[in-house]
Design a protein that fits this description.
2 domains, five-stranded antiparallel β-sheet, 3 helices, 13 strands
Length: 218
Protein backbone atom coordinates (compact mmCIF):
# COMPACT_ATOMS: atom_id res chain seq x y z
CA UNK A 1 0.00 0.00 0.00
CA UNK A 2 1.53 3.25 -1.11
CA UNK A 3 1.26 6.36 1.05
CA UNK A 4 2.54 9.83 0.20
CA UNK A 5 3.15 12.74 2.55
CA UNK A 6 0.63 15.53 1.88
CA UNK A 7 1.94 18.83 0.49
CA UNK A 8 -0.42 21.03 2.55
CA UNK A 9 1.42 20.50 5.88
CA UNK A 10 4.58 21.88 4.24
CA UNK A 11 2.70 25.10 3.46
CA UNK A 12 1.24 25.12 7.00
CA UNK A 13 4.72 24.62 8.41
CA UNK A 14 6.08 27.61 6.49
CA UNK A 15 3.25 29.79 7.81
CA UNK A 16 3.62 28.45 11.35
CA UNK A 17 7.36 29.09 11.53
CA UNK A 18 7.02 32.80 10.67
CA UNK A 19 6.32 33.85 14.33
CA UNK A 20 9.48 32.07 15.48
CA UNK A 21 11.47 33.69 12.69
CA UNK A 22 10.11 37.11 13.70
CA UNK A 23 11.09 36.56 17.34
CA UNK A 24 14.63 35.54 16.36
CA UNK A 25 14.94 38.60 14.09
CA UNK A 26 13.79 40.90 16.92
CA UNK A 27 16.20 39.22 19.31
CA UNK A 28 19.18 39.65 17.02
CA UNK A 29 18.68 42.97 15.28
CA UNK A 30 16.10 45.15 17.06
CA UNK A 31 16.45 45.02 20.82
CA UNK A 32 19.56 46.65 22.25
CA UNK A 33 19.09 45.05 25.65
CA UNK A 34 20.69 41.59 25.29
CA UNK A 35 18.18 39.95 27.61
CA UNK A 36 15.07 41.63 26.27
CA UNK A 37 14.20 38.37 24.57
CA UNK A 38 16.05 35.46 26.13
CA UNK A 39 17.44 32.64 24.04
CA UNK A 40 15.37 30.28 26.18
CA UNK A 41 12.23 31.92 24.89
CA UNK A 42 13.51 31.71 21.32
CA UNK A 43 14.21 27.99 21.68
CA UNK A 44 10.76 27.48 23.23
CA UNK A 45 9.15 29.31 20.29
CA UNK A 46 10.98 27.14 17.75
CA UNK A 47 10.09 23.88 19.53
CA UNK A 48 6.48 24.95 19.92
CA UNK A 49 6.31 25.77 16.21
CA UNK A 50 7.69 22.35 15.29
CA UNK A 51 5.13 20.74 17.59
CA UNK A 52 2.30 22.62 15.88
CA UNK A 53 3.59 21.58 12.46
CA UNK A 54 3.68 17.91 13.49
CA UNK A 55 0.18 17.98 14.96
CA UNK A 56 -1.31 19.78 11.96
CA UNK A 57 0.49 17.46 9.54
CA UNK A 58 -0.79 14.36 11.28
CA UNK A 59 -4.32 15.75 11.45
CA UNK A 60 -4.37 16.63 7.76
CA UNK A 61 -2.90 13.27 6.83
CA UNK A 62 -5.48 11.37 8.88
CA UNK A 63 -8.42 13.47 7.67
CA UNK A 64 -7.57 13.18 3.98
CA UNK A 65 -10.45 11.11 2.49
CA UNK A 66 -8.15 9.67 -0.19
CA UNK A 67 -5.97 8.15 2.52
CA UNK A 68 -8.89 6.72 4.49
CA UNK A 69 -9.89 4.71 1.40
CA UNK A 70 -7.40 1.89 1.72
CA UNK A 71 -7.01 -0.39 -1.30
CA UNK A 72 -9.32 -3.40 -1.17
CA UNK A 73 -6.47 -5.83 -0.52
CA UNK A 74 -5.49 -3.82 2.59
CA UNK A 75 -8.96 -3.76 4.16
CA UNK A 76 -9.53 -7.20 5.78
CA UNK A 77 -9.53 -5.47 9.18
CA UNK A 78 -12.66 -3.53 8.19
CA UNK A 79 -14.74 -6.55 7.20
CA UNK A 80 -18.13 -6.87 8.86
CA UNK A 81 -17.95 -10.68 8.64
CA UNK A 82 -15.54 -13.33 7.43
CA UNK A 83 -15.69 -17.08 6.83
CA UNK A 84 -12.74 -19.27 5.84
CA UNK A 85 -12.79 -23.00 5.10
CA UNK A 86 -9.59 -24.94 5.78
CA UNK A 87 -7.79 -26.13 2.59
CA UNK A 88 -8.71 -29.76 3.35
CA UNK A 89 -12.38 -28.77 3.70
CA UNK A 90 -12.78 -30.27 7.20
CA UNK A 91 -13.00 -27.13 9.35
CA UNK A 92 -14.61 -23.73 9.12
CA UNK A 93 -13.49 -20.56 10.92
CA UNK A 94 -15.96 -17.70 11.02
CA UNK A 95 -16.69 -14.31 12.49
CA UNK A 96 -20.38 -13.95 11.78
CA UNK A 97 -20.58 -10.32 12.87
CA UNK A 98 -17.81 -7.78 13.35
CA UNK A 99 -18.24 -4.18 14.43
CA UNK A 100 -15.91 -1.19 14.55
CA UNK A 101 -14.20 -1.02 17.92
CA UNK A 102 -14.53 2.77 17.61
CA UNK A 103 -15.73 5.15 14.91
CA UNK A 104 -14.17 4.45 11.47
CA UNK A 105 -11.62 2.10 13.02
CA UNK A 106 -11.05 -1.64 12.29
CA UNK A 107 -13.69 -4.17 13.28
CA UNK A 108 -13.69 -6.80 16.01
CA UNK A 109 -15.80 -9.88 16.61
CA UNK A 110 -15.99 -13.38 18.08
CA UNK A 111 -14.22 -16.10 16.12
CA UNK A 112 -15.75 -19.57 16.09
CA UNK A 113 -14.14 -22.68 14.64
CA UNK A 114 -16.30 -25.68 13.81
CA UNK A 115 -14.20 -27.86 16.16
CA UNK A 116 -15.63 -25.93 19.13
CA UNK A 117 -13.09 -23.16 19.75
CA UNK A 118 -14.44 -19.67 20.46
CA UNK A 119 -12.19 -16.60 20.73
CA UNK A 120 -13.37 -13.10 21.47
CA UNK A 121 -11.79 -9.80 20.38
CA UNK A 122 -10.57 -11.18 17.04
CA UNK A 123 -10.03 -9.40 13.75
CA UNK A 124 -11.75 -10.72 10.59
CA UNK A 125 -8.34 -10.96 8.91
CA UNK A 126 -7.48 -14.58 9.78
CA UNK A 127 -6.05 -17.15 7.35
CA UNK A 128 -5.47 -20.93 7.34
CA UNK A 129 -2.12 -22.59 6.82
CA UNK A 130 -1.71 -24.55 3.60
CA UNK A 131 -1.67 -27.84 5.56
CA UNK A 132 -4.96 -26.96 7.40
CA UNK A 133 -3.36 -27.47 10.82
CA UNK A 134 -2.97 -23.85 11.89
CA UNK A 135 -5.07 -20.71 11.85
CA UNK A 136 -3.38 -17.28 12.11
CA UNK A 137 -5.49 -14.57 13.74
CA UNK A 138 -4.81 -10.93 14.70
CA UNK A 139 -6.40 -10.52 18.13
CA UNK A 140 -7.11 -7.23 19.88
CA UNK A 141 -5.63 -6.52 23.31
CA UNK A 142 -5.53 -3.43 25.48
CA UNK A 143 -2.27 -1.94 26.69
CA UNK A 144 -2.30 0.71 29.41
CA UNK A 145 0.58 2.64 27.86
CA UNK A 146 -0.22 2.32 24.15
CA UNK A 147 -3.96 1.60 24.04
CA UNK A 148 -5.60 -0.94 21.74
CA UNK A 149 -3.16 -3.11 19.79
CA UNK A 150 -3.02 -6.56 18.21
CA UNK A 151 -1.19 -9.77 19.04
CA UNK A 152 -0.74 -12.64 16.63
CA UNK A 153 -2.62 -15.77 17.67
CA UNK A 154 -1.83 -19.17 16.15
CA UNK A 155 -4.40 -21.94 16.69
CA UNK A 156 -3.16 -25.52 16.39
CA UNK A 157 -6.31 -27.50 15.61
CA UNK A 158 -4.49 -30.86 15.85
CA UNK A 159 -3.04 -30.31 19.32
CA UNK A 160 -6.01 -28.09 20.25
CA UNK A 161 -3.80 -25.30 21.54
CA UNK A 162 -3.89 -21.52 21.22
CA UNK A 163 -0.57 -19.67 20.99
CA UNK A 164 -0.39 -15.92 21.66
CA UNK A 165 2.59 -13.86 20.53
CA UNK A 166 4.69 -11.95 23.08
CA UNK A 167 4.80 -8.95 20.72
CA UNK A 168 1.98 -6.58 19.81
CA UNK A 169 1.56 -4.04 17.04
CA UNK A 170 -0.94 -1.35 16.11
CA UNK A 171 -2.24 -3.58 13.32
CA UNK A 172 -1.20 -7.02 12.03
CA UNK A 173 -2.23 -8.61 8.75
CA UNK A 174 -1.35 -12.25 7.95
CA UNK A 175 -1.07 -12.45 4.17
CA UNK A 176 0.41 -15.90 3.49
CA UNK A 177 0.78 -19.09 5.55
CA UNK A 178 2.72 -21.63 3.52
CA UNK A 179 5.34 -24.27 4.26
CA UNK A 180 5.40 -23.45 7.94
CA UNK A 181 5.92 -19.70 7.56
CA UNK A 182 3.46 -16.92 8.27
CA UNK A 183 4.10 -13.62 6.51
CA UNK A 184 2.58 -10.78 8.52
CA UNK A 185 2.33 -7.11 7.54
CA UNK A 186 2.79 -4.63 10.36
CA UNK A 187 1.22 -1.19 10.46
CA UNK A 188 3.57 1.76 10.86
CA UNK A 189 3.71 3.11 14.39
CA UNK A 190 2.58 6.62 13.34
CA UNK A 191 -1.03 5.50 12.77
CA UNK A 192 -3.39 3.49 10.60
CA UNK A 193 -3.35 5.96 7.73
CA UNK A 194 0.41 5.64 7.22
CA UNK A 195 0.22 2.13 5.78
CA UNK A 196 2.35 -0.97 6.23
CA UNK A 197 6.04 -1.30 6.95
CA UNK A 198 8.05 -2.35 3.93
CA UNK A 199 9.58 -5.42 5.59
CA UNK A 200 7.01 -8.01 6.75
CA UNK A 201 7.33 -10.11 9.88
CA UNK A 202 8.06 -13.79 9.20
CA UNK A 203 6.99 -16.28 11.88
CA UNK A 204 8.26 -19.83 11.47
CA UNK A 205 5.93 -22.58 12.69
CA UNK A 206 6.39 -24.55 14.89
CA UNK A 207 9.86 -23.22 15.84
CA UNK A 208 8.77 -19.71 16.92
CA UNK A 209 5.79 -21.03 18.91
CA UNK A 210 8.22 -21.77 21.74
CA UNK A 211 8.27 -18.04 22.52
CA UNK A 212 4.44 -17.76 22.43
CA UNK A 213 2.13 -18.15 25.41
CA UNK A 214 0.23 -21.42 25.12
CA UNK A 215 -3.22 -22.45 26.34
CA UNK A 216 -5.34 -25.47 25.52
CA UNK A 217 -9.00 -25.73 24.59
CA UNK A 218 -11.61 -28.45 24.70
Amino acid sequence: MKRTFPALPIFVGIIAILPAALIIWLRLFVFDEPFALSWGFVIWAVLYTLFVVCVVSAAIHASDPARRKWPKEDRPHWRTAHRAVSPNGLLVAEIAKAMEHSMSNPTVGTLRISDGLELQQCSPAFIWSDDSRYLAIPRWVRNFASGRRQRLVIVDVEQRKVYTSPFSRLLLLPVTFERGKVEVLMCKSFGLTFGWKKIPLIVEIPRDLQTFESTGYQ
